[in-house]
Write a structure and sequence with these properties.
about 450 residues, alpha/beta, Rossmann fold, 2 domains, 15 strands, about 40% helix, globular, disordered C terminus
């Protein structure tokens, strides 16, 4: 009869920092030519660490790469032996997103130090994403994602978060399930559980990247246009409909204003088109602005976005008031900062707290159409002067210096030199038993697939 150890220790892996150290990074998402924030994050981590050690990066089958560092070995995620204990012992450390177990089975317990990047508290996004779905789909998807997150928390030895708010959120979640306990988190050991790594910007100055770009400004952008860009996706927890509703009021005062949504269809084929997309396109058509004053790009390739950022007069990012906002990190706002673009954004999230600077107008989440239009009009008037635009870019420099990837990832580099492996204890064993009895909801099956197919054809 086996017994469960009541006490455990942190096992220290003393790894010398060299090219012989082997790091595995599970790519968050599609990477390369077309990618959203999660893919950009995985690629940035792999590229940075490859300067100091060897890195294996798994990727989605549709990823397309150019000019990868020599020390990064690319592997299709289909070729990774995810649930093979022996496979993982070929590496010294593994890093994976909090969503990984939704896609692949993993050994239990995980044999080497495992860093779980939970920069995206996806269960909070799902609350907004699923609220209007049929109950069968809502319950299945919510419980499936919640269980996946809890299982990744159980396997992890260190958690990567974007800021103090997200660290507090996951501290509460871990404590509620007994994973922050007298063994894992007493005294200074609590600090060993987390790495705070926000989302970053390229080290290369934007002006240099723009000068090197071989792309041309798209034909739908005219010389006289005052270009307002929405750099991120059209997700259900954001508020792009308000931006569209505000455009007639904006055009009344700024007749050459043009709103460009840089991506409405996620490059990851497994992520269905969201309901907000259809609503936005329908609204733009109803206002007779579709294709002229309001443009929808399916997805702007990563390199092509640079010339659009260089041409933009204003960056826009609006969201509603809900729980997701408090813990969000609006990754594509970092593009506005990198390029030095004036912006109008909703507040309430992590990053907005740092953006009370010239050039940034911050609205309350869920602000009405009249307030949005007035602020956009005022911003276009104020920052049409070239010298003021240049001053804004200078004002952003302190934030740029803080958020460059090479600066943000220094703690990760330090951490992997002496990784800690949490050994099994009474609490984690009890937690695993709770997960084994986690409620299961029958798969909706054809209902979900049918809805996805309809959305894909929009």
């Amino acid at each position: 009869m086996s017994t469960v150890p009541i006490f455990s220790t942190l096992v220290e892996y003393n790894l010398s920092m060299s090219k012989n150290l082997k790091i595995f990074i599970a790519g968050y998402d599609v990477m390369g030519k077309n990618m959203a924030g999660p893919g950009m994050r995985s690629l940035a981590m792999a590229s940075f660490l490859s300067k100091h050690t060897s890195v294996t990066l798994s990727h989605d089958s549709v990823s397309e790469f150019d000019n990868m560092p020599e020390q990064v070995t690319l592997i299709n995620e289909k070729d990774v032996l995810w649930d093979n204990d022996k496979y993982w012992r070929e590496f010294d450390i593994a890093m994976m997103p909090g969503t990984q177990i939704l896609k692949t089975p993993l050994p239990k317990p995980f044999p080497i130090p495992l860093y779980v990047d939970i920069y995206d508290p996806f269960i909070l996004e799902n609350i907004e994403l699923l609220v209007d779905k049929p109950s069968q789909i809502r319950d299945f998807e919510y419980l499936r994602h919640l269980k996946a997150m809890l299982e990744m928390l159980l396997r992890a030895d260190k958690f990567i978060v974007t800021g103090e708010r997200t660290r507090d959120f996951f501290t509460g979640l871990l404590a509620g399930w007994g994973l922050i306990n007298p063994i894992t988190a007493s005294g200074a050991k609590f600090d060993d559980l987390f790495l705070v790594i926000p989302f970053g910007i390229p080290d290369e100055p934007f002006i240099n990247a723009l000068a090197k770009s071989k792309n041309e400004i798209p034909d739908f952008i005219n010389e006289q246009d005052e270009l307002i860009i929405w750099a991120g996706g059209l997700w259900d927890w954001l508020d792009p409909l308000k931006a569209i509703d505000a455009m007639p009021l904006i055009l009344d005062k700024r007749p050459f204003a043009k709103l460009l949504f840089m991506g409405y269809r996620h490059p990851n084929k497994h992520i269905p088109l969201m309901e907000t997309v259809k609503q936005c396109i329908d609204k733009a058509r109803k206002l007779r602005l579709f294709g002229n004053s309001i443009i929808f790009n399916e997805w702007t390739p990563f390199s092509e976005r640079i010339v659009i950022l260089g041409r933009a007069d204003l960056g826009l990012s609006l969201h509603k008031k809900h729980i997701e906002t408090r813990y969000a990190f609006r990754t594509r706002i970092m593009d506005y900062i990198w390029a030095g673009i004036p912006m109008v954004i909703s507040g309430g999230d992590n990053l907005a707290l740092e953006l009370a600077i010239p050039g940034v107008r911050i609205l309350e989440p869920g602000a009405d159409v009249y307030e949005i239009s007035a602020i956009v009009i005022s911003s276009l008037e104020t920052y049409s002067d070239k010298s003021r635009r240049e001053k804004i870019s200078d004002d952003y420099e302190m934030i740029r210096a803080k958020y460059r990837w090479s600066e943000l990832l220094k703690p990760l580099l330090t951490s992997i030199q002496n990784p800690l492996k949490l050994s099994c204890d009474f609490y984690t064993s009890s937690f695993q038993k709770l997960l084994e009895s986690f409620p299961e909801v029958s798969r909706p099956g054809i209902i979900t697939r049918g809805i996805d197919k309809i959305k894909r054809n929009i």
